[in-house]
Design goal:
The protein is mostly helical and about 325 residues long. The protein has one domain (about 15-310). It has helices at about 15-40, 45-70, 80-105, 110-115, 120-130, 135-155, 165-185, 190-210, 240-260, 265-275, 275-290, 295-310, and strands spanning about 225, 235. Strands 1-2 form a two-stranded antiparallel sheet. Strand 1 (about 225) and strand 2 (about 235) form a beta hairpin. The longest helix is centred in the first third of the chain and has 27 residues, at about 15-40.
């Protein structure tokens, strides 16, 4: 998911090609992480517990990096705490939880495409809450997205796709939109890395209260599980998959995306991030043998086109 931009560096320090490579790599890693997470969920670990592991692991990694490189960036003023708590719980914690709940019930690509309705929700917020001018192409994109969504959920035969999965994907889109709005608000006073660190801190605290660590199903962590699909004959321990999810699927792409924002405008980085649902669909097809009907593929293409259209407008 796209992070709030860091302060802009002078143009002479920018390397656009490096920025494109970093953003594309981040989107690819998140796409692969979706399938890895689905394998973990199939082992019996709940969506809530998986969100807790990812959040707490990312917190530990980000704080460790900041302590080594720039510990002063962890300083926080008391008046910032309520906002950071809302950002961490309402944004980071819930968007991951709803995403995990969605991919446990839907094809990964479909769940991500619905979640990426978030930029359109931000446009609606800007128009009707902030009373900003929203270009006509945004409304066209919204209409296209809704039409594509109708094809994806197959309204003529809704039993073919999990209604709960679609609902969780929409909730993920809502919380992702909240995350974007809160990050945009905070970027003027705090850099993206420390913002994430504090956000993950409150998210981890929230999950620790909701689901105390002493009741965590530790016995599942050491179990060897099938990688499913075309890799069903291979097995790995759950802890190794969780480690991949935290390091390669969370910390590394977050840092890559933040680094990309040093070389490219946030709008371009956002467009590149749209590679995630496309690559996730390919990975899920190649690995898990997930398949979609012709109407649903058409709906996915329409939604993707709508989001790309929306990204070309402010």
């Amino acid at each position: 998911m796209t992070e709030a931009p860091l302060p802009v560096e002078p143009a002479r320090h920018r390397r656009p090609r490096a920025g494109y490579a970093m953003a594309a790599t981040a989107a690819t890693l998140w796409a692969v992480n979706g399938t890895v997470s689905k394998v973990i969920l199939a082992s019996g670990v709940s969506s809530l517990r998986l969100s807790q592991v990812r959040t707490t692991g990312a917190l530990a990694g980000l704080v460790l990096v900041l302590l080594v490189t720039a510990p002063e960036r962890l300083r926080v003023r008391r008046r910032e705490l309520p906002f950071l708590a809302l950002f961490g719980i309402g944004g980071l914690a819930f968007v991951q939880w709803f995403y995990f709940l969605a991919i446990h019930r839907l094809a990964i690509g479909i769940a991500l495409l619905i979640q990426y309705l978030a930029p359109l929700l931000v446009a609606l917020w800007a128009r009707y809450v902030f009373h900003e001018h929203v270009r006509r192409r945004i409304w066209l994109a919204l209409a296209l997205a809704l039409g594509g969504l109708a094809l994806i959920v197959n309204v003529a035969n809704s039993g073919t796709i999990s209604t709960a999965g679609v609902l969780f994907s929409l909730l993920a889109a809502l919380t992702y939109a909240l995350y974007i709005l809160l990050a945009e608000h905070a970027v003027g006073s705090r850099d993206a890395v420390s913002l994430l660190a504090w956000g993950f801190a409150f998210a981890a605290l929230f999950w620790a209260i909701i689901a105390p660590w002493w009741s965590f199903p530790w016995h599942r962590v050491g179990v060897d599980v099938s990688l499913l699909g075309r890799l069903g004959g291979h097995h790995l321990p759950v802890w190794s998959l969780m480690s991949f999810m935290v390091v390669v699927g969370t910390i590394v792409p977050f840092f890559l995306l933040v680094s990309a924002l040093r070389h490219l405008p946030a709008t371009r980085v956002g467009i590149i991030a749209m590679l995630e649902p496309v690559i996730a669909t390919i990975v899920a097809w190649a690995w898990l043998e997930e398949s979609l009907g012709a109407a649903q593929l058409a709906g996915a293409a329409v939604v993707l086109g709508a989001i790309l259209l929306a990204q070309t407008a402010r």
